[in-house]
Amino acid sequence: MAGLQGPHESPAANSRRCGDTTLICPSAKLSTDPSSSQTPAAQPRNPLHGITLEGIVTALVTHYGWAELGQRIPVRCFTSDPSVASSLKFLRKTPWAREKVEGLYLFMLRDIKRAGGSQSHSV
């Protein structure tokens, strides 16, 4: 009788018993449709909004160079035969490394702003 729905039970009651939350809480189900209206149109307080990971890595390499980038974030994709393509492949699979790269990018932006917009980096 555990899996059968009685004549007076609603489908939601049956869902609760089976552990399915889609009928009880439809908003719990995430949409995989890229055109979904769940994505916010603008994030004015998020400095990473609209910037690709490739753009972040390219900006860091332009600003610091591969050698210093490898010293600041010691991962093999920055220290051993570095390239943007290999770095992107690694960073997309490794959340902790991506967080470090995004953090360094935000630090770089603050550093540039503090220096008055100067793009050069003194060693």
Task: List key phrases describing it.
123 residues, globular, mainly alpha, Transcription Termination Factor Rho, Rna-binding Domain, Chain A, Domain 1, single chain
Describe this structure in words.
By secondary structure, the chain is an all-alpha fold. It has a domain at 53-114: SAP domain (Transcription Termination Factor Rho, Rna-binding Domain, Chain A, Domain 1). The protein is 50% helix and 0% strand. The chain has five helices and no strands. It has helices spanning 11-18, 53-72, 76-79, 84-93, 95-114. Helix 2 (53-72) packs across helix 5 (95-114).
Helix/strand layout:
Blueprint: H1 11-18, H2 53-72, H3 76-79, H4 84-93, H5 95-114
Helix pairs in contact: 2-4, 2-5, 4-5
Query: What do we call the CATH topology of the domain at 53-114?
Result: Transcription Termination Factor Rho, Rna-binding Domain, Chain A, Domain 1
- What's the CATH H-level homologous superfamily of the domain at 53-114? SAP domain
Number of H- or I-type helical stretches = 5
Rounded to an integer, what's the Rg over CA atoms? Answer: 24 Å
Distance between the termini: 74 Å
At the first level of CATH, what is the class of the domain at 53-114?
Mainly Alpha
Taking pLDDT < 50 over at least 5 consecutive residues as the criterion, the unreliable ranges are 12-33
Strand element count: 0
- Beta percentage is under 5%
Order of helices and strands: HHHHH
Largest sheet: none
Helix fraction bin = 40-55%
Oligomer: single chain
Give me the CATH architecture of the domain at 53-114, please: Orthogonal Bundle
Report the structural category. Answer: mainly alpha
Described by the principal axes of the CA atoms, the overall outline is globular
The average pLDDT is: 76
